[in-house]
Amino acid sequence: MQSQKHIVLVSANLGSGGAERVLSSLANFLNAQGYRISLVNFEAPKIKSFYPLDDKIKVYNLDLFQKKEMSSVLRLISLMGRIRVLRRKIRVLNPNLVISFVDTVNVITLFSTLRLHIPVIVSERTHPDYGQLPTLYKALRWFIYPNSAQILVQTSSAKEAFPKRLKSRTEIMPNPLKTPPKDFHKKHASSKTIISLGRLCPFKGYDLLLKAFHKIHADNPEWRIAVYGKGDERKRLEILRDRLGLHQKVTFEGETKESWKALKNADIFAFPSYFEGFPNALAEAMSVGLAVACTDCLGNRDLVQHQKNGLISKVGDVESLAKNLQMLMNDPKLRENLGIEAQKILKTYNEKDVFQKWLSLVKENLNEK
């Protein structure tokens, strides 16, 4: 009887982000295909996964998070320590295949598996020109990535940014989109709510959203904004909201496991990012037929065509974002038409097809037919 193939997935954390959602969904899918799955991450010992995982999936927390502010010397020492700990764990687990998520983790994983003769697939989650990779890791990425069995990126623009010598092993793997619940499309009266979902960090551009809404809320006093997500920027954004006189119009709801419910209660989805990899939240909003107003950054522009399935403003341009929001707020028919077109995204990124692509890739690297 053929032994069960063992796959180790490596990630930084078990949080509520888009990469973690895809990772947990992929782990559950591969587990359902009969593979033995282990999830190795850098979280502290008692941290649990935000997203559900099958009971058969083994989770190993290595407690490898490092301080954000570190000198170059200390960062190098920390990197060497993380490589040593991860290598020890991978040798003990002895998998047939390793799949790593996110650029910094990819670098650590590839060094950790040197000369172990285990194929490693690395998955990039942002555009390589716009990510927030520390200088040390940027230099090491191009040195160590040739050791990967395959490099996965989320968009064609991300693939084009890779050096020529790596393009032959680079493949586009978009994020999977779940089909909305069957009862999602029940008609509901307008709640006059603009929603946004995402981590509260600088590159998500929530300061732009607040400033844009400040320009138009006096003419639209019945409208409000609800932002779902957590992050270090929350306090600063709350201060900005209050300074702009929007404390009764804008709420920060924290993270949610019920994104469908949040989207169902909204009329417009706003996404003012400075850059994205594959914008999960934007894709989810489009899949349920919400009219979207987003910025023309890498990632967003791979999904949205201006005035066809959404409205696009220049990155960092408060005036154009405010104008697009105003158009959507004042025109229910425009919202409906853009939403109908936006839903067609499911044909390209539906979960079933994307995971079948993952399965083919896994079988190829395991030398399975």
From TrEMBL:
<dbReference type="Pfam" id="PF00534">
    <property type="entry name" value="Glycos_transf_1"/>
</dbReference>
<dbReference type="InterPro" id="IPR001296">
    <property type="entry name" value="Glyco_trans_1"/>
</dbReference>
<protein>
    <recommendedName>
        <fullName>Glycosyl transferase family 1 domain-containing protein</fullName>
    </recommendedName>
</protein>
<dbReference type="Pfam" id="PF13439">
    <property type="entry name" value="Glyco_transf_4"/>
</dbReference>
<feature type="domain" description="Glycosyl transferase family 1">
    <location>
        <begin position="186"/>
        <end position="344"/>
    </location>
</feature>
<dbReference type="InterPro" id="IPR028098">
    <property type="entry name" value="Glyco_trans_4-like_N"/>
</dbReference>
<dbReference type="GO" id="GO:0016757">
    <property type="term" value="F:glycosyltransferase activity"/>
</dbReference>
<feature type="domain" description="Glycosyltransferase subfamily 4-like N-terminal">
    <location>
        <begin position="17"/>
        <end position="176"/>
    </location>
</feature>
